Amino acid sequence: CEPGDGGTLAIITDYDIAEFAHKLVDGDSSPYFAWVGARKEGGVWKWVDGTPWQHSNWMKDEPVSYYGYNSAYVWDNNDKIGLSAYSDWGYFGRVCQIGDVSALTSGKSP
Predict the structure, then answer these.
(1) pTM for the predicted model, two decimal places
(2) What percent of the chain stands above pLDDT 90?
(3) Which of 28, 23, 15, 36 is nearest to 86 (CA)?
(4) What SS3 state is found at 57?
(5) β partners of residue 86
(6) Is there a contact between 70 and 38 (Cβ–Cβ < 8 Å)?
(7) Rounded to whole angstroms, how far apart are CA atoms 95 and 31?
(8) Contact between 27 and 86 (Cβ < 8 Å)
(9) What is each CA distance from 9 to 2, 55, 81, 105, in whole angstroms?
(10) Beta pairing class for 93-94 and 33-41
(11) Helices (H), the chain
């Protein structure tokens, strides 16, 4: 997710991708929280690459509507898989993707 690497924050369009992203923050050797590519603009949640918002597996009581909570993250929450909302200033890790994530769910090599 660095400029010039061709990547973006992860776009989570289905449960398989959500599960993959969750595994990256599940455990002692990884970040506990990690940003994904969802933003709230004008009160509407969107994926940063323009992918239609179809998968909305939020954690219980999410997304919260506090002012400034306009970005989404995944986190290690006792094996529960879903998104939570927070403001942009959190020092979280990032779940990045480079290329088409369909290879993750189709079994093909990326």
Answers:
(1) 0.76
(2) 0
(3) 36
(4) coil
(5) 71
(6) no
(7) 10
(8) no
(9) 10, 16, 17, 18
(10) parallel
(11) 15-24, 102-106
10, two tokens = 């992860």
What does pLDDT average to over the chain?
A: 77
- If you ran DSSP here, which 8-state letter would residue 80 be given? B
3-state secondary structure of 83: strand
Cα(90)–Cα(88) distance, integer angstroms: 6
Answer for the pair 14, 55: CB distance below 8 angstroms, yes or no.
Answer: yes
**Closest of 50, 43, 44 to residue 9, by C-alpha:** 50
Q: How far apart (Å, rounded) are the C-alpha atoms in residues 28 and 17?
A: 21
The answer to whether 109 and 102 are in contact (CB under 8 A) is no
The two three-digit tokens of residue 50, written as one number: 């323009």
- The token pair at 18 is 């959500």
User: Cα angle vertex 72, ends 68, 75, to 5°?
Assistant: 125
107: which 2 tokens?
């079994």
